[in-house]
Structure formats: C-alpha cells, structure tokens
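FAQ: What does the model actually see?

It sees only this:
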Amino acid sequence: MSDKESAGHPYNVLFLCTGNSVRSIMAEAILNRVGAPRFRAYSAGSRPKGEVSPQTIALLRSFRFKTDGLCSKSWEEFAAPGAPKLDFVFTVCDNAANEVCPVWPGQPMSAHWGVPDPAAAGGSQAIISRALFDAYRLLQNRIGMFCALPLTSLDRLSLKRMIRDIGKMRRDPSEEGAA
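And it is asked to produce this:
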C-alpha cells in the first residue's frame, strides 16, 4: 500500500450498497471531503435506484457538502475495463454484503461496514430524519477512523483486521461507556 501514497496518488475507495441512493452516497461524499487528497471515493450499487435520495442530498447540503456530482450508478462500472483501480471496497448495507460482487481490478482490500437503512426506520418524517442523521454520523466516525490509519506502516494482514474492526463499530466511540 505504501507505493501509491509515496508516489502521491490517492487510494481509490468504493462504497457499495444495493440501491446506491443513501448510505453509499453519504460515504462517498464524506471520504471525498475528509480524506482528500489522500483518498478518492466512489459509490455504486448492485441494483441502483437511478437517483440519489432527496433527503440524502438535503442532509449533505446542510453540512455544506458538494452534491453536484453525486449519482446512483451500477457497480458494474467499476469492474469494467478502464475503471479506476480500487484499493479498498466497503459494503455499507447487509444486502450488498451478501451478494456476489464483480471481480474488482487490483485485488482491493474489502470489509463490511454495515449501516442500518434509514428507509427502514418508518414512521414520521422526524424519525426518518433521525435515522438518516444516525447513518451519516456512523459513517463519518468510521471514515474518520479509516483516514487516521497509518497505511504506509501496516502490513496487509494488520490493515485487513483494522478495516474489518472499523466496520464493527456501532456508535460514536465517545458513547461507548454511556448507558
């Protein structure tokens, strides 16, 4: 992993979800902001919805994210010739984690970072908005931990374990002792 960083090229990271309209889109936006220029994030879905959730766009804009280039797309784009060589692939929904993924060029490291689906929250708009914010916060915390990893000094096995452990984090680390 160190060759890429020492050459000044960003690590390419793909976030996968089934519909590519909420969680993977948020992860793409977050990593492109907090991880630049070290990381370049993309997102895709196994069965993309074809549009980004308007609530996701509104949430990202409320935090002053650029949303112009965000779009729902198929993961097949990233397995095709000419696609960016991926260094990391993270599934952010349980459905995508259980699907057979395409063969990614470059043998990227992968991990499952499951995030509850805000659309499954149901109920009032306030409940759905809270679920959307909770998904955003969980992704932001995980991505922050990922960006802090000393990639150039870790062997592949240690790095694999660390990115897998990040996916097991369920909430804000500052809340771990809270009841």
